[in-house]
Amino acid sequence: MIGITLTTERVAGVTVRPQTNGRRTNVPGHVYLLHFSEPVAHARHYIGWAEDGRLFRRLAQHEAANGQATPLVRALIQRGGSFTLARTWGDVDRFFERKLKNRRNASQLCPICRAANGKDTA
Ligand SMILES: [Zn+2]
Hints:
Blueprint: E1 10-11, E2 14-15, E3 29-40, E4 43-51, H1 55-64, H2 71-78, E5 83-92, H3 94-103, H4 106-109, H5 111-116
Antiparallel strand pairs: 1-2, 3-4, 3-5
The protein binds zinc ion.
């Protein structure tokens, strides 16, 4: 009887994950949660993703409300509002961003809202 051992290939300490559909699913980055000072079209949050090392450049684009800012954040800034970087998740890919967005419960993920609602006991 022949035993088959599945191994994870390691190159220079980096785990190479299998690619399933040709998409780059394992680009490392940060997912960030922005908490708005006021609601925009009933939204009080924006969840985005930035490649590793580009998070603060991405936030600066949002703050500048320029063409590279997401429309929701641009609308917030243009009406005189502001945003707070409430939370980040490190070493995650774009699919994690999609997963969080699909949950549609950003206020429960947001430490600022949780504190305001008295849900943080720590
Ligand atoms: Zn919030």
